[in-house]
UniProtKB/TrEMBL annotation:
It comes from Mortierella isabellina (Filamentous fungus). GO terms for cellular component: membrane. Residues 1-18 form the signal peptide. The keyword Lipid metabolism does not apply. This is NodB homology domain-containing protein.
Length: 426
């Protein structure tokens, strides 16, 4: 258990009591139960040595079974309808989809930023839902000095699949392996279906996969049904490509409110944000690489200068294009030298990032729970990753987070947060 950070214990307890209620139980999505596991992928947390080198470009998914890539999926699909029917809509607040300005930006000025009734991140950077049954967003590592390594927008597809460019995956994944690192990867479903072999490499190399939606749109602008469709196809693409059912997602642009959180939660996922932005996504005429370098220099200086001792960090980085991949590879050695680098899940002591019970990853201290199964990094099979209920019978896994293994109370300057860190299936 991490040490408590207690600055004003009475205020912290008051905040916890005010939150009240129990977290709404989550269940392994039944609508994904029939998605077959592919061959050539790990069936439990993979072991070293991890694979590197050229990918199997012959492995493909049937794109005819998926909606148009990079577009909001239609909601009249029969698979999506089943996912919609699985939602308890009484637990989804009646918040209207957000409007956009002519510029394409979100209309945040018409929102009540003071009361912030919907915990809308885009307007207020709110990470503690106003709904008592939805857990707070993860956005930082609890322990000072930890760096929750993560990358958005993958897997990075090549322009030419017959002769992949050197910056396309597995460039970043192989670089991580060579530097003895793994990361949390937030995947866009549209890019998974077009490059599933890269997603397989990421899983087999020890990285943790999460959803970044299907088409990377501002989620609060979508209808309830469109939200379900975005989540559904992202979840299915990852599972069909890799065999895992993810429990984590990150909203594109950080755009999330309690309506979106409630739907994601019922589809089996926890919301992950970040606490510092590298702005690598904006490298170009307005943001030269030197400006992004400056952020890393500042963060390293603060840590080495003993000015960064309150908590660890989740830094927003990307595998979006050649620039972001080169920047990530360039800075990883220095970040590793000055921080305790690990995937976000590891810094949170979350050893089970998937609904498949056989995947159990190391805790923050590097130890692996005694009940962890192990396979080599390219194991094949169909059964070792099946989900089970609390009686040990095959079926859906249910997680009631009110039965958390430990509770961490953290008070940060200017705000009080209640963060629960859970060890599932321990």
């Amino acid at each position: 258990m991490h040490p408590y950070t207690i600055l004003g214990l009475s205020a912290c307890i008051t905040a916890a009591m005010a939150q009240g209620g129990e977290i709404l139980p989550q269940t392994s999505p039944a609508f994904l139960a029939d998605v077959p596991r592919p061959t050539g992928v790990a069936t439990s947390a993979p072991q070293k040595p991890y694979p590197t080198g050229a990918l199997d470009m012959n492995f493909k998914l049937d794109l005819k079974k998926y909606p148009t890539t990079k577009e909001v999926p239609p909601v009249n699909n029969e698979e999506v309808k089943k996912a919609i029917a699985a939602i308890d809509w009484s637990k989804v607040p009646k918040i209207a989809p957000r409007k956009k300005l002519a510029t394409g930006d979100l209309d945040v000025k018409s929102y009540d930023n003071i009361k912030d009734p919907d915990c809308w991140w885009s307007a207020t950077i709110c990470k503690q839902p106003k709904l008592s049954y939805i857990p707070p967003d993860y956005y930082q590592c609890p322990t000072a000095g930890d760096w929750g390594l993560n990358y958005d927008d993958g897997p990075l597809n090549p322009f030419h699949f017959d002769a992949p460019e050197e910056w396309a995956e597995p460039a970043l994944y192989d670089a991580l392996t060579k530097q003895n690192q793994t990361a949390t990867l937030f995947y866009i479903g549209s890019y998974v279906v077009t490059y599933p072999t890269a997603a397989q490499r990421a899983l087999n190399s020890g990285n943790v996969l999460c959803s970044h939606t299907w088409s990377h749109k501002q989620m609060t602008t979508l209808t309830n049904e469109q939200l379900v469709a975005e989540f559904y196809w992202s979840l299915k693409s990852i599972k069909e490509a890799t065999g895992v059912t993810v429990k984590c997602w990150r909203p594109p642009f950080g755009d999330v409110d309690d309506r979106v959180r409630a739907i994601a939660h019922q589809m089996g996922m926890r919301t992950f944000i970040w606490d510092q932005d590298s702005f690598d996504w904006n490298i170009g005429p307005n943001t030269p690489t030197s400006k992004v370098d400056g952020y890393f220099e500042k963060w390293i200086s603060a840590r080495t200068g003993n000015q960064d001792n309150e908590h660890g960090h989740v830094t927003l980085q990307h595998e979006l294009n050649a620039d972001t991949v080169h920047n990530a590879i360039k800075w990883l050695p220095q970040v590793t030298k000055n921080f305790n680098v690990m995937p976000i899940h590891q810094c949170l002591d979350d050893t089970s990032p998937y609904w498949e019970e056989s995947f159990v990853y190391p805790k923050r201290d590097g130890t692996v729970p005694a009940n962890a199964a192990t396979t080599n990094s390219t194991s094949t099979g169909t059964n070792s990753g099946e989900t089970k209920d609390s009686t040990g019978n095959a079926g859906a896994v249910t997680s009631n987070e009110s039965g958390a293994s430990h509770l961490q109370l953290t008070v940060l300057p200017g705000m009080i947060t209640l963060a629960m860190v859970y060890n599932f299936f321990m």
